[in-house]
Amino acid sequence: MLFMNTTVSFQLLRFTCFFWSVFAFAACSYNAMDLRVVNLSDKSEMADSVSSQVQKEFPLPSEPHFVKAFDENRWIIGNHESVWITQDAGQTWSKTFTPSNSDGKPINVRGASFGPNGRVFLATDTSLIKSYDAGLTWGDEIVLNFQPDAIYFLDDYSGWAVVTEFGDNIRSRSWRSGAIFRTQDGGFTWNSCKILDREKLGAKLGNWWLSDLLVLASGRGLAVGDGVILSTEDFGDTWKLTSATPYKYLKVNFRNDVAWALPVGNDVISISNDNGASWKDIKVPDNRADVLFAEFIDRKHAVLGMNRLFLTHDGGKHWTVSDSAYYTFHVEVLESKALLRLVIIDEKSFAEVSIDKGRTWKPLSEYKL
Description:
Strand content: 35-45%
Structural class: mainly beta
Oligomer: single chain
Helix content: under 10%
Number of helices: 3
Shape: globular
Number of strands: 30
Low-confidence stretches: 10-58
Mean pLDDT: 81
Largest sheet: 5 strands, antiparallel
Strand order of the largest sheet: 1-6-7-8-9
């Protein structure tokens, strides 16, 4: 069974702390007008409540930076400190990787990218490390001369990283700016990609950064961050600004002909049906909570993880609650378009399957995937 190649990005601070960084970066914008759209309200209280619930019921990280299912049994979960895996659909978990420097001191997991057959690329503060068995074992580390904020690998060799550059590295009104690097030899060497009108972005936004990216086999790709969605059509050699609303975007994803980006502190999801050329906003069903994850099956059908699991069957015009008994940690869309989810209840985790786009869920044992 094949799963879509996916990527995820990480912030050094935990999810709720990200909101405070928004204020800090805005205050340091070096006299540039901040045109980014954000509505933080008091959502951090809701995020804290959800985190407390998960921490009590589940021994894994309450605020995971990534969750990925390679098949119905093999899952991987990680935060900026460690990585855990299961090979029995969540019945048991083991910690398989905790990064440290040459002195044995802890360092951060910065990004992860996933491919078929259990391929994992993991970036830390200082290096890149690979696994080809869904995180069960890890290869030798490749030392990096930059600190990535997110990575994405199309295959074993072609990969990209988003990086934050400071000070003299950029000639604009900002002292903090997003950059994109590319490798074609599996991470041993990297070259800087061109972002068109990058200095104008600094003058417009002040300090800005990138948080996530992806590049498809067609050469098209998207990168998102603080006030921007960038697009590429040449495998990431050059990137240009799209017309998307300048929210503070945290994640981006793509399936079939739908791309979606998740902003932080807003009551919307931004989606595109034309490879990122144009974007529109979809209102989320509960403005008291932030979107933890979103998965679009096609243009009409999607699942949304917030304080509950929501479904839409009309492209986001209307949302319904799937169920409220379980805390859904993650939903994976299988190649068959069936949905596989990891759920938590009564201090245990397990997997369930839906073959009706999330309306009903059954134990994994009842289905042969």
